[in-house]
C-alpha cells in the first residue's frame, strides 16, 4: 500500500530500439521451439506481487500486474526480448518488409501461423482466433483497453487456418511492437457471450505454457503446467502468483522463504542494503522506463517564466534525494527518455544543485522577497501547492525535503496530497494542480513519439485529447513531432527526438529527477528470471523459468 | 474588582460542591486528569523547550534511536526530531479530538433535545436516524468519506464529528423525555414561554451532567478515530504531524526503527486512557446512570 | 411478534436506503472517478477514458445511476466489480469466510476471557483483582488496535520469531494447524478491546444478579457457592451478553477491518480497503450494504434470542 500510485504507472514499457530492433529481427533462440529434449515439469515457484491480478482477459482495461497472468497463459504472435529483438511465438516468423510479411508501403500484412498449437481445452489454434482477437479489440461494445494501431486494420482475411492477412488504413510503423504485446484469445471462448462479462474472463483459456487452475480471490492464483506447450517450457509443475498487499510483508516473506520470487512493487529501496546480505537470495536492480519529476502547470502565473522554473531546478538536491531517500538505487536523469533507449540524448546539460544561483536567477528576474521572506513580483507570490498521491511514503518524504530547499530560496511550497482517485482524475487531467510530483512515461508504446504529451493541441485543459497536462506550448516541438511521426527510418528520426529532449531540458515544463529502477529478489537456484525493459512485467518469460 | 472579591467565595463553593468532592476522591479520575493535563502541557509547552523544529529535515541524522544526543525520542526517516513532532502532533490530534467533540456534542444535543421534547413523529424520525447511524459500522463510513474528500484537519474533524454524535443524541433524548412532563416544564409552558426557550433554557441545563460525561468520552473516541484514519493514510497529511500519521509509515520500519511506532502509540494510549478515566470519574461524580448497559 | 417484525423490517429498509444514499453520494460526488487510476497508463488519452466511461454507463446523471443500481439491488443483482467483473456478492462471499473466522475466533476468546474477568471481578467486588482489571479494561479500550498489532508483530514475529507476521496461511499449506498459527496474533489483538467490553458488561450484569433475592435465597439455603454462581449468576447474566453480542457487531467489523490491514488477513476489511484504493465502487457499495445488513440481522437475532430465552421480555 505504500507505493500508491506508481503502481498504476508502470504498466507499459514495451519498446523497441528503433534501428537495432527493426534490423535485428532474426528469430532468437529463445522462442524457436525447435525439437529438443525437454524435462518433465517439476516443482513450483511462488511469485509474490503486492497488487492483486484481477483481469484475466488481456484486452480489457487492466493494470500492469494482470499481465503477470497473461504472459503465463497466453501468447502473442511474437514477442520482444531484453535486447529489443522480436522473436516468433504463435507466428512462424516475425513479419518484416524483408521476408514479405509487410509490404514496402507498410499497408499490407501477411502472417503465417504455427500449425502445431492447441488451446488448453484441446481445440486447435487457427487464423480465425487471430482474426477474432483483432476484431474484438475494436469492437465498439467491448471495453478494450487499447485501440491504437488496431483501429487502422481493415479487411482481415483468413487465407487458410495458418495464414492471415490484412490491410492498414495508413502506414503505422509501431504496429509491429503493438502486436508483440497483443495476446491472442480463442474465438470459441466467447461464443454467445457478452465479451465484457464472458465466463472466459474469469477462467481464461490460452495457448501458453501454463494453464488456469484456480483463483482464491484476495490471495493467490494457481496455474499448472501445460504439457502440450509448443514452445520452450514449461519447467514447473505449478506456478503460484501470490498477492501480498504490503511491500514490507512481501519482503519479509522473501526472507522467510514463503515466496520464491519477489516481483512487482519489488523491494523498497530502504531494504536494499539488508536484502543484498540475505543468504541464498539473488537481489538485483533493473531499470524501468519511468522518470520521477516535478510537473508544472504552466497556466499558473508563478510558473510562466522560465527563470522561475530554472531557479527551482537549481534548488532540487537530486543527489541527496536519490542517495538518502532512495538509497542510491535509481539514477539521476535529465530526460523523459529512458537511458536504455536508442533515442536517449546523453548530452543534455547536467543539473546543478546551487541555491545561490537559484536566488540570483530569481533576483534577476525581479522576484523580490516580501515581508515574510516569500518572493513576489507584480503582486504574484511565489507560492504554490505541490500534490501527489497520498500514502506514497518515499515520495512524501522527497516532497517535504524539497519544501525545505524551496523555502531557503524564498519560495513557499505547500503540500496538498490527494487520494489516487482524486489526484489522477480531473485534478491531473484537466490541469487543476499547481505542481505535481509524479512518475511518468511520455512514450506512446515502443515509439519515441510523444505527441500525446507534448503537442500544444494535446492539453485536455484546452479541449485537447492527449495528456499534455503541463499545458506546454512550443511551436518548434509541434513541428518536430509532426516531422518525426512521418518518418520511418530510425536513423532519420534520431536527431529529431534528440532535439526534442534538448528543448524540453531547456524549457523545463517538468523537472526530471531520476529514472526509476526496481529491486527484484529471488531464491538462488531459480533460473530464467531476466530483466526486460521492453516488456512490462517480471514474468514476461515465465515459460522458461525453472529450478536449477 | 468584583471578580477578585467574589473569587474566594467561588472557590469555596467549588470546593464544597458534592460532585467536585466525589471526583477528587476518585483516584482513577485524578490520574486521568493528571495524564491529560500533563500531556496537554507537554504538547503546548514542549515545542518551545526543544532545540528542534518539528519540520526541520536533517537527512544526516535520520533513524537516530531514542536518547541520541538531544533527540530524546530519536528521529524519523527524514531526520526530524520525534519529540518535537510528537508534541506538535499532540496539538493537532487533541485539537481535532476536542473540536470533533464540540461539534458532535452540539449536533447530538440539538437532535436529542428536539427529539425528546417534541416526541411524536419528529421524535421518531430523528431517533430512527440516530439508530441508523449507530447500527452502522462507522469505520467503513468514516473511511469512505475520508478516501474521497480532500483531507485537511478541518475535514477530518467534521468527518469524525459526523459519525459520532449519535451517542449524545440518544442519551439526551432519554433524559429530556423523562423531564418533559415535570412540573417546571409544565409551569414554563403555562407561562407561555416559547418551545425554544423551554428546550434550551429550561430543560437543557438539567441534562448537562450526562452531556459532559458523553462529551469527555467523545474526545477519547475522536482521538482514537483520527489515529485510525491517519494510520490508514486517509487522514491528516504530512508534513503536518498527527499521532495517527506518525504511525502511518511506521510499519515499514518496524524491524529497523521500532521507536517510530512505539512512541506515538504510547502518546495516543495515554491521551485516550486519560479522557476515559476522566469520563468515568465524571459519570460517578455527576451521578449519571450508565447508559451503555 | 408479527407487529414487531414488520416494524423492524420498515426501520431496516429506511436505514438501508439511507446508508446506500450516503455511500453513493460520497463515492460519486467526489472529484475523480473509478477510471482515474488508469490516467497514467502510457498512451492513455482522455478520449479513451471517456469512451470507456460511457460504455460502463458512468457518464449518466447520478440520480439515474443510483436508481438503476437500487432497482437492480432489489432484484438481487448487486452489480459487478470494476476490477474482475465478478458479481459483487460473489466477491464479498469469497472474503467472508476469512472475516468470519477472525471475528468468530476473537469473539470466542473475548467472551471466555472477558466473562471470566467480569464474573470474578463482580464476586470479589472491591478487591485488588477487581481494581486492577478495571484499570486494565480502561487501558485496553483506549489502545488503538492497529498499534497493538504493530507491537505484537514487532515482538512475536520480528524479535522472537514465534508467529508469522501476516497472512492467513502459508502458500501451498493451508492445513488446520497452519491457519491456527496464523490466526493466533490477529485474533488476540482483535479480542483485546472486546475482552474489556465483555468484562465490564459481565461485571455489571453479575453484580445486578448477585444482589437479587433469589441468589441470596439460594445462598441462604446453603447451596455450594460454585453452584449458585454457575446456575443463577451466569445463567442470568448471559442475557445482556446476547444483546451485547448483537450490538458489538459494528465495532467488531470495524476492528476486523483495521486488524486485517495490519496482518494482511484476506477478509472483508482488506477487500474494502483494496476496493477503496482501486475505486471499485460497486464493491465498496456492496460492502457498505452488506455490513449494514449484517449488523441489522445481528441486532434482530439478539432481540429475538433474548425474548426467547427470557419469557419476561415481550416484543412489542
Shape of chain C: globular
Task: Report the mean per-residue pLDDT of chain A as an integer.
Answer: 85
**Average pLDDT reading of chain C:** 81
Give a short account of the largest sheet of chain C: none
Give unreliable regions of chain C as ranges.
Answer: none
Compute the number of strand runs of chain A: 21
Q: Can you summarize the main beta sheet of chain A?
A: 11 strands, mixed
Distance between the termini of chain C: 6 Å
Shape of chain A: globular
CATH architecture of chain A: Roll
Q: Would you identify the CATH H-level superfamily of chain A?
A: Dipeptide-binding Protein, Domain 3
Describe the secondary-structure layout.
The complex is a heterotrimer of chains A (548), B (293) and C (316).
Chain A: H1 18-23, E1 44-49, H2 67-73, E2 78-80, E3 86-88, E4 108-112, H3 127-138, E5 153-160, E6 163-168, H4 175-179, E7 210-216, E8 220-225, E9 238-243, H5 247-256, E10 261-262, H6 272-276, E11 281-296, H7 306-314, H8 318-325, E12 331-332, H9 355-364, E13 368-369, E14 375-377, E15 380-381, E16 383-387, H10 393-408, E17 412-415, H11 420-423, H12 426-429, E18 435-440, H13 451-454, H14 475-486, H15 490-507, E19 510-523, E20 526-527, E21 546-547
Parallel strand pairs in A: 1-9, 1-10, 16-17, 16-18
Antiparallel strand pairs in A: 2-3, 4-6, 5-6, 7-8, 8-9, 10-19, 11-18, 11-19, 12-19, 13-14, 14-15, 20-21
Helix pairs in contact in A: 7-9, 14-15
Chain B: H1 2-16, H2 18-25, H3 27-49, H4 82-118, H5 120-134, H6 138-148, H7 153-162, H8 166-180, H9 183-190, H10 195-203, H11 208-231, H12 243-248, H13 259-285
Helix pairs in contact in B: 2-13, 3-4, 3-13, 4-5, 4-7, 4-8, 4-11, 4-13, 5-8, 8-11, 9-10, 11-13
Chain C: H1 2-29, H2 46-55, H3 62-74, H4 88-123, H5 128-142, H6 145-159, H7 176-210, H8 213-220, H9 225-247, H10 249-262, H11 268-277, H12 281-309
Helix pairs in contact in C: 1-12, 4-5, 4-7, 4-12, 5-7, 6-7, 6-10, 7-9, 7-10, 8-9, 9-12, 10-11, 11-12
Amino acid at each position: 500500500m505504500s507505493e500508491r500510485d506508481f503502481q498504476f504507472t508502470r504498466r507499459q514499457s514495451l519498446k523497441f530500439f528503433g534501428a537495432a530492433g527493426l534490423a535485428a529481427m532474426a528469430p532468437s533462440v529463445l522462442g524457436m521451439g525447435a525439437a529438443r529434449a525437454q524435462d518433465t515439469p517439476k516443482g513450483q515457484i511462488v511469485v509474490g506481487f503486492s497488487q492483486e491480478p484481477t483481469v484475466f482477459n488481456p484486452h480489457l482495461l487492466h493494470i500492469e500486474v494482470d499481465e503477470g497472468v497473461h504472459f503465463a497463459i497466453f501468447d502473442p504472435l511474437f514477442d520482444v526480448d531484453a535486447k529489443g529483438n522480436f522473436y516468433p511465438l504463435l507466428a512462424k516468423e516475425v513479419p518484416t518488409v524483408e521476408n514479405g510479411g509487410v509490404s514496402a508501403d507498410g499497408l499490407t500484412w501477411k502472417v503465417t501461423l504455427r500449425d502445431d498449437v492447441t488451446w488448453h481445452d484441446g481445440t486447435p489454434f487457427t487464423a480465425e482466433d487471430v482474426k477474432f482477437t483483432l476484431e474484438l479489440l475494436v469492437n465498439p461494445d467491448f471495453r478494450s483497453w487499447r485501440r491504437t494501431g488496431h483501429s487502422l486494420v481493415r479487411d482481415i482475411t483468413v487465407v487458410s487456418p495458418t495464414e492471415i492477412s490484412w490491410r492498414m488504413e495508413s502506414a503505422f510503423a509501431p504496429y509491429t511492437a503493438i502486436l508483440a504485446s497483443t495476446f491472442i484469445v480463442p474465438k470459441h471462448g466467447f461464443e454467445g457471450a457478452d465479451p465484457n462479462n464472458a465466463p472466459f474472463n474469469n477462467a481464461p483459456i490460452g495457448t501458453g505454457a501454463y494453464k488456469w487452475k484456480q483463483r482464491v480471490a484476495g490471495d493467490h492464483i494457481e496455474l499448472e503446467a501445460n504439457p502440450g506447450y509448443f514452445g520452450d517450457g514449461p519447467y514447473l509443475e505449478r506456478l503460484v502468483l501470490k498477492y501480498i498487499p504490503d511491500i514490507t510483508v512481501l519482503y519479509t516473506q522473501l526472507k522467510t522463504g514463503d515466496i520464491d520470487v519477489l516481483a512487482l512493487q519489488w523491494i523498497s529501496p530502504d531494504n536494499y542494503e539488508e536484502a543484498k546480505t540475505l543468504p541464498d537470495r539473488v537481489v538485483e536492480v533493473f531499470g524501468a522506463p519511468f522518470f520521477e519529476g516535478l510537473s508544472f502547470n504552466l497556466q499558473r502565473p508563478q510558473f510562466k517564466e522560465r527563470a522561475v522554473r530554472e531557479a527551482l531546478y537549481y534548488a532540487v538536491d537530486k543527489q541527496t534525494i536519490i542517495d538518502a531517500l532512495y538509497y542510491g538505487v535509481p539514477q539521476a536523469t535529465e530526460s523523459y527518455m529512458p537511458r536504455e533507449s536508442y533515442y536517449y540524448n546523453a548530452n543534455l546539460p547536467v543539473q546543478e544543485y546551487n541555491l545561490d544561483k537559484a536566488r540570483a536567477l530569481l533576483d534577476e528576474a525581479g522576484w523580490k522577497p516580501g515581508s515574510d521572506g516569500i518572493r513576489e513580483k507584480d503582486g504574484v507570490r511565489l507560492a504554490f501547492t505541490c500534490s501527489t498521491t497520498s500514502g506514497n511514503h518515499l515520495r512524501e518524504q522527497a516532497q517535504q525535503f524539497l519544501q525545505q530547499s524551496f523555502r531557503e530560496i524564498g519560495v513557499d511550497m505547500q503540500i496538498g496530497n490527494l487520494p489516487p482517485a482524486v489526484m489522477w482524475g480531473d485534478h491531473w487531467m484537466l490541469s487543476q494542480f499547481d505542481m505535481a510530483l509524479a512518475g511518468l512515461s511520455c512514450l506512446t508504446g515502443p515509439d519515441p513519439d510523444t505527441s500525446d504529451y507534448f503537442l500544444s493541441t494535446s492539453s485536455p485543459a484546452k479541449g485537447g485529447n492527449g495528456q499534455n497536462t503541463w499545458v506546454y506550448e512550443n511551436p518548434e516541438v509541434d513541428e518536430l513531432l509532426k516531422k518525426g511521426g512521418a518518418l520511418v527510418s530510425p536513423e532519420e528520426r534520431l536527431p529529431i527526438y534528440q532535439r526534442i529532449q534538448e528543448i524540453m531540458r531547456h524549457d523545463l515544463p517538468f523537472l526530471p529527477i531520476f529514472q526509476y529502477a526496481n529491486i527484484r529478489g529471488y531464491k538462488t537456484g531459480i533460473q530464467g528470471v531476466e530483466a526486460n525493459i521492453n516488456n512490462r512485467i517480471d514474468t514476461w518469460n515465465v515459460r522458461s523459468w525453472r529450478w536449477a | 474588582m468584583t471578580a477578585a472579591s467574589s473569587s474566594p467565595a467561588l472557590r469555596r463553593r467549588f470546593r464544597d460542591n458534592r460532585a467536585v468532592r466525589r471526583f477528587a476522591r476518585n483516584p482513577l479520575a485524578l490520574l486521568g486528569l493528571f495524564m491529560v493535563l500533563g500531556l496537554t502541557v507537554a504538547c503546548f509547552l514542549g515545542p518551545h523547550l526543544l532545540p528542534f523544529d518539528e519540520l526541520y529535515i536533517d537527512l544526516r541524522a535520520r533513524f537516530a534511536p531514542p536518547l541520541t544526543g538531544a533527540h530524546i525520542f530519536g528521529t524519523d526517516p527524514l531526520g526530524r526530531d520525534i519529540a518535537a513532532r510528537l508534541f506538535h502532533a499532540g496539538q493537532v490530534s487533541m485539537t481535532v479530538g476536542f473540536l470533533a467533540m464540540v461539534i458532535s456534542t452540539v449536533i447530538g444535543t440539538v437532535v436529542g433535545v428536539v427529539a425528546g421534547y417534541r416526541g411524536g413523529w419528529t421524535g421518531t424520525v430523528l431517533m430512527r436516524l440516530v439508530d441508523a447511524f449507530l447500527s452502522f459500522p462507522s469505520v467503513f463510513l468514516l473511511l469512505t468519506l475520508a478516501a474521497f474528500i480532500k483531507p485537511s484537519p478541518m475535514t477530518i474533524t467534521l468527518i469524525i464529528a459526523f459519525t459520532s454524535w449519535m451517542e449524545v443524541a440518544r442519551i439526551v433524548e432519554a433524559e429530556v423525555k423523562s423531564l418533559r412532563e415535570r412540573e417546571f416544564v409544565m409551569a414554563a409552558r403555562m407561562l407561555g414561554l416559547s418551545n425554544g426557550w423551554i428546550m434550551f433554557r429550561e430543560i437543557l441545563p438539567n441534562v448537562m451532567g450526562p452531556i459532559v460525561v458523553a462529551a469527555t468520552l467523545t474526545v477519547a473516541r475522536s482521538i482514537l478515530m483520527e489515529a485510525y484514519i491517519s494510520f490508514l493514510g486517509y487522514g491528516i497529511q504530512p508534513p503536518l504531524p498527527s499521532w495517527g500519521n506518525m504511525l502511518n509509515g511506521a510499519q515499514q520500519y518496524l524491524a529497523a526503527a521500532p521507536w517510530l511506532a512505539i512512541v506515538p502509540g504510547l502518546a495516543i494510549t495515554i491521551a485516550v486512557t486519560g479522557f476515559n478515566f476522566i469520563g468515568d470519574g465524571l459519570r460517578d461524580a455527576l451521578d449519571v446512570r450508565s447508559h451503555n448497559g | 411478534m408479527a407487529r414487531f417484525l414488520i416494524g423492524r423490517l420498515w426501520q431496516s429498509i429506511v436505514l438501508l436506503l439511507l446508508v446506500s444514499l450516503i455511500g453513493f453520494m460520497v463515492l460519486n460526488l467526489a472529484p475523480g472517478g473509478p477510471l482515474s487510476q488508469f490516467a497514467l497508463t502510457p498512451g492513455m488519452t482522455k478520449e479513451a477514458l471517456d469512451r470507456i466511461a460511457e460504455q460502463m454507463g458512468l457518464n449518466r446523471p447520478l440520480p439515474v445511476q443510483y436508481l438503476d443500481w437500487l432497482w437492480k439491488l432489489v432484484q438481487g443483482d448487486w452489480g459487478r466489480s470494476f476490477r474482475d467483473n465478478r458479481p459483487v456478492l460473489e466477491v464479498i462471499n469469497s472474503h467472508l469466510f476469512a472475516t468470519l473466522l477472525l471475528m468468530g475466533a476473537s469473539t470466542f476468546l473475548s467472551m471466555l476471557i472477558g466473562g471470566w474477568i467480569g464474573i470474578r471481578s463482580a464476586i470479589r467486588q472491591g478487591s485488588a483483582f477487581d481494581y486492577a482489571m478495571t484499570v486494565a479494561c480502561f487501558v485496553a479500550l483506549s489502545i488503538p488496535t492497529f498499534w497493538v498489532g504493530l507491537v505484537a508483530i514487532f515482538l512475536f514475529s520480528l524479535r522472537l520469531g514465534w508467529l508469522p507476521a501476516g497472512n492467513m496461511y502459508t502458500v501451498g499449506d493451508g492445513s488446520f494447524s497452519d491457519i491456527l498459527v496464523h490466526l493466533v496474533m490477529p485474533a488476540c489483538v482483535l479480542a483485546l478491546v472486546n475482552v474489556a467490553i465483555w468484562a465490564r458488561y459481565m461485571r455489571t450484569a453479575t453484580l445486578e444478579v448477585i444482589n437479587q433475592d433469589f441468589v441470596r435465597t439460594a445462598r441462604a439455603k446453603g447451596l455450594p457457592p460454585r453452584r449458585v454462581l454457575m446456575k443463577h449468576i451466569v445463567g442470568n447474566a448471559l442475557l445482556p451478553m446476547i444483546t451485547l453480542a448483537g450490538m458489538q457487531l459494528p465495532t467488531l467489523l470495524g476492528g476486523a477491518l483495521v486488524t486485517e490491514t495490519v496482518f494482511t488477513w484476506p477478509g472483508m476489511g482488506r477487500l474494502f480497503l483494496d476496493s477503496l484504493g482501486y475505486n471499485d465502487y460497486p464493491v465498496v457499495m456492496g460492502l457498505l450494504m452488506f455490513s449494514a445488513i449484517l449488523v441489522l440481522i445481528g441486532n434482530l437475532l439478539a432481540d429475538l434470542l433474548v425474548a426467547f430465552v427470557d419469557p419476561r421480555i415481550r416484543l412489542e
